[in-house]
Design goal:
heterodimer, A: mainly beta, 6-stranded mixed β-sheet, B: 116 residues, mainly beta, 7-stranded mixed β-sheet
Chain lengths: 110, 116
């Protein structure tokens, strides 16, 4: 069974602060994805990383895939209240299976 | 494309009743996933299909749960008989597949199931 562990589970910060969310596994994945979910909606894809060591930036969000393709991080610079939500990492395999971590609930206070 | 469409959005049923959740994936997507989300357990993969064929159903909790995909544009998840512990939000998602960069999933809005 491939498990993904996210940390922290909960994160409460002030607007303007930086934060990092981690996603770790003992398994190797062919791709690692990050999703954001708002209340009452399904998760929405933010980014996919496929190469070990890969770094992708999406405005204030920076995503990194570990060299061994077992872990990933999401860093948000100067958080805004609109960043509030549930952040999920998901590992994909070559045969199409997609497994999610438990998620990190981020609350950004004004 | 309208995205992944799930119905109903909300379902309240009595313990012991049969519940059927429905999903229409995005046209052209080869993979379809059923997930269950609760506060305690997060987003759990129940079963997924590739080209209408079930590939991995190891996440299905027990025999009360069954899923079918009779064609490329429709899937159902059935719970019979339902129990209060089945209360959760059930998501259907589809994916184009076909390579490492194409496993990203597109989710429906979910069905919130309450079994009383």
């Amino acid at each position: 069974t491939q498990l993904l562990e996210q940390s922290p589970q909960f994160l409460s910060i002030q607007e303007g602060e930086n934060l990092t969310v981690y996603c770790n596994s003992s398994s190797v994945f062919s791709s690692l994805q990050w999703y954001r979910q708002e209340p009452g909606e399904g998760p929405v894809l933010l980014v996919t990383v496929v190469t070990g060591g890969e770094v992708k930036k999406l405005k204030r969000l920076t995503f990194q895939f570990g060299d061994a393709r077992k872990d990933s991080s999401l860093h948000i610079t100067a958080a805004q209240t609109g960043d509030t939500g549930l952040y999920l990492c998901a590992g994909g395999t070559s045969y199409g299976k997609l497994t999610f971590g438990q998620g990190t609930i981020l609350t950004v206070h004004p | 494309d309208a995205g992944v469409i799930q119905s109903p959005r909300h379902e309240v049923t009595e313990m012991g009743q049969e519940v059927t959740l429905r999903c229409k994936p995005i046209s052209g997507h080869d993979y379809l996933f059923w997930y269950r989300q609760t506060m305690m357990r997060g987003l759990e993969l129940l079963i997924y299909f590739n080209n209408n064929v079930p590939i991995d159903d190891s996440g299905m909790p027990e025999d009360r749960f069954s899923a079918k995909m009779p064609n490329a544009s429709f899937s159902t998840l059935k719970i019979q008989p339902s129990e209060p512990r089945d209360s959760a939000v059930y998501f259907c998602a589809s994916s184009p597949g076909g390579g490492r960069s194409k496993t990203e999933a597109f989710f429906g809005q979910g069905t919130r199931l309450t079994v009383v």
